[in-house]
Amino acid sequence: GVNPINIGLLASSSGGIAPCTPSSVVEILKNTLGKLEGIDAVIIGRSNIVGKPLIQLLLRENMTVTVCHSRTRDLKAVAASGTVLISAMGRPRMITKEYVGEDAVVIDVGTSELDGQIVGDCDLESVMQKAKLVTKVPGGVGTLTTTILMRTLVDLYEKSEA
Hints:
Strand order of the largest sheet: 2-1-3-4-7
CATH topology: Rossmann fold
Oligomer: single chain
Helix content: 25-40%
Number of helices: 6
Structural class: alpha/beta
CATH architecture: 3-Layer(aba) Sandwich
CATH class: Alpha Beta
Largest sheet: 5 strands, parallel
Number of strands: 7
């Protein structure tokens, strides 16, 4: 979970329980790209729930990680520099094709309500013009997050019984 001890364990690569949403992102990337070592990833968002734990998990995979936020200068250019773009801002449909590198893998973690609908950070129609793959909201990362939560609970139960 997200508590000071677990955050410290994750940051020091000393174990810890990885939060489910960041774990889902890593799982999607492994299934899409295979070996992640050396791949450039740009994360937009630095929350304690998704962004910061995700940085640690991607570094464990030996990815090169760039972190952006609301104060990042020339955000579009920085975002487009990555082979992987992960958006976790919660700003509906802000990410358009201008933020995406050619044939990038785009993981949309953001969830917002817009005009009575649940939407992600990505303007799906625009982003799909440049990206190789885009996860959609709803039905993308969140679906896998539930599965990883169940897997984590089973793993923790089994460890407690040992």
